[in-house]
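Pilot study result, target chain (258 residues):
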Amino acid sequence: MRKLYLILALAALPILSKAQSKIKAPTAIWPELQLSYGLGESGLLFLQNHYRINTDERYNGVGSFERIEFTLGYEHAFTDHWLAGAMFRYAKEDMPTSNFTSAFIRHAGNIKGLYFNKQLMLDYVNQERRDPFARFRLMAELGKRLPLGQRFITPSLSYEMFVVKEFGEETNELLIRTIDRTRLRLDATYEIGERFRITPYFLRQTDYYFVEVGPKYDEDGVLVEPGYTTKRNRISPVFGLELKYTINRAVSTGSYTY
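Predicted structure:
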């Protein structure tokens, strides 16, 4: 995983090098509450309650929310640098309802005075009105824990790529883009105490897919331009706020829950 940042950069080249049709989605607000509890010397059990609120109210189909998520997970630190875990997430939207069974492995390293976290996650996704599918997620994060008075603040920058693998036999591979989604995130975690942290962040999420463009006709009904399929990038700006509390221990910057 030491070379993960090179893999991320190389994988992003096709996205950057080709012209893309882009649209901008409404801004969203994502608050989240997290509670974690240490198990033994190396284990950590965590609960997360995540909400998504769209500034365009037409997208908020679950009461006042666009989406509500509940997560139960466990993380185990094998060494100071290697961690792994699993989680189950349930997500409720107006359409669809989904659940995710996930496993991940993380490496917590350092580079030039910064911490350098790398993560590989595999999601098995069950989604309403869709066959189950797998989603691979590669993430790299750079940050630094800095003293601020008697407390600490940790600014960080992360980039994550999502790659979807369909299981259905009738999947048209020509209409599936290699990278399904990316997330670029800038945040700052303020440690109010050893166990309580608050993290405001800004996230730019981009979804990559194909769209069908219909044919064009003139006034006499003569075909001027045939229909075609083209690539589309949907860019979603997100402002988020995470409140995190650990009941019986402090966590390091290498943890998934930090």
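One observation from the pilot: Residues 212 and 229 are 5 Å apart (CA to CA). A full batch analysis is planned for the follow-on phase.
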